């Protein structure tokens, strides 16, 4: 198991070079303050090192939604690129980038995220950022059914 984890960390680190330096990002909730996404430090090997979100950002992401929302569907979630910072989900349930919320069926926890479209050919499941999975209380190696909500029409 340790060897697999080490191999995973090495593969995850390989993608770090493609992550740009700190960049501002629009929040998942309209009207929320702009966040700065910080890439993980070189040599990051643990979930804590890859999760560069601040306590304030985590609190904002787990707050109740302020806008009406609608269930877009249920999907199986797995860990996305751990070197891509912030709260996001790449899902085939949306056709454009938009604010949304994920709810874990097992824990009942929810997190506000940026929903990003995923081509159907790329897979049927949803890739979720490391900070979002942690906020949901989902083990990083788990495949978990989640509900995806987006802005109400």
UniProtKB/TrEMBL annotation:
Ranges of Low complexity composition bias in the record: 52-67
Stretch list, region Disordered: 22-67
Domain of life: Bacteria
Protein name: D-galactarate dehydratase
Annotated organism of origin: Rhodovulum euryhalinum
């Amino acid at each position: 198991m340790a060897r697999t984890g080490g191999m995973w960390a090495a593969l995850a680190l390989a993608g770090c070079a493609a992550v740009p330096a700190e960049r501002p990002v629009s929040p998942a909730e309209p009207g929320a303050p702009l966040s700065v996404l910080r890439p993980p430090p070189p040599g990051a090997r643990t979930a804590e090192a890859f999760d560069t979100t601040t306590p304030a950002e985590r609190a904002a992401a787990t707050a109740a939604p302020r806008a009406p929302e609608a269930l877009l569907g249920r999907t199986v979630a797995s860990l996305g690129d751990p070197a891509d910072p912030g709260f996001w989900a790449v899902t085939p349930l949306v056709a454009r980038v938009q604010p949304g919320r994920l709810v874990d069926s097992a824990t009942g926890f929810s997190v506000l995220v940026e929903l990003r479209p995923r081509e159907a050919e790329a897979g049927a499941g949803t890739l979720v950022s490391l900070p979002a999975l942690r906020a949901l209380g989902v083990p990083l190696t788990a495949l978990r059914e989640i509900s995806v909500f987006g802005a109400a029409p």
